[in-house]
């Protein structure tokens, strides 16, 4: 059902993560560049850089969720990209019996895709972004990254390097 993924899920050490059914983000590549989102200050882990993405609805695959969220946050149409892979880069985090209001078994899936043209695409940021930017893959680490994305980045970068 549309929107049923909005809400919090249990995470380690008493914390919470967004997306009752998990979350997904789009790692979109064009040549040696990838699309990055500077998250608005009011968002979870605001004022950091990560991938466009968000909560997964119950009827969606991770790829469908990442493409929908990327469209909402960047204006990039799903049919202008080719999905290459989907990798769980965080979780699963078990339910917390002391916080039954929070969903359990949360995962974050990074969906790797490339533009069909091989060129960068124009973007239109929504209110969840301070900025959208095509960044050289070699320069991603120079940005203040969202902690979870920073943890996943070394493995994702290896995969991108192997594919090019």
From TrEMBL:
- Please name the GO terms that the record assigns under molecular function: hydrolase activity
Compositionally biased region (Basic and acidic residues): 56-70
> What residue stretches are annotated with the Nudix hydrolase domain?
19-160
Region: Disordered; residue ranges are 51-70
Pfam families, per this entry? NUDIX (PF00293)
Membrane-crossing segments per the record: none
Q: What Gene3D superfamilies does the annotation carry?
A: Nucleoside Triphosphate Pyrophosphohydrolase
Task: Output the InterPro entries linked to this UniProt entry.
Answer: NUDIX_hydrolase-like_dom_sf (IPR015797), NUDIX_hydrolase_dom (IPR000086)
Cofactor(s) essential for the protein = Mg(2+)
Q: Which UniProt keywords apply?
A: Hydrolase
Which PROSITE patterns has this protein been placed in? NUDIX
Q: Which PANTHER family match?
A: 8-OXO-DGTP DIPHOSPHATASE-RELATED, GDP-MANNOSE MANNOSYL HYDROLASE
Any idea what this protein is called? NTP pyrophosphohydrolase
Name the species this protein comes from: Corynebacterium suranareeae
- Cite the source lineage: Bacteria, Bacillati, Actinomycetota, Actinomycetes, Mycobacteriales
């Amino acid at each position: 059902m549309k929107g049923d993924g909005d809400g919090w899920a249990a995470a380690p050490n008493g914390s919470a993560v967004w997306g009752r059914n998990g979350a997904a983000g789009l790692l979109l590549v064009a040549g040696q560049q990838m699309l990055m989102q500077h998250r608005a200050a009011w968002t979870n882990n605001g004022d950091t850089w990560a991938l466009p993405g968000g909560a997964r609805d119950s009827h969606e695959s991770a790829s469908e969720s990442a493409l929908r969220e990327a469209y909402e946050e960047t204006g990039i149409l799903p049919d202008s990209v080719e999905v290459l892979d989907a990798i769980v880069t965080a979780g699963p985090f078990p339910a917390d019996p002391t916080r039954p209001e929070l969903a359990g078994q949360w995962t974050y899936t990074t969906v790797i895709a490339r533009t069909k043209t091989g060129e960068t695409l124009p973007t239109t940021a929504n209110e969840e972004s301070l900025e959208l930017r095509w960044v050289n893959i070699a320069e991603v680490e120079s940005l203040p990254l969202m902690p979870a994305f920073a943890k996943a980045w070394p493995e994702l970068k290896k995969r991108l390097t192997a594919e090019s």
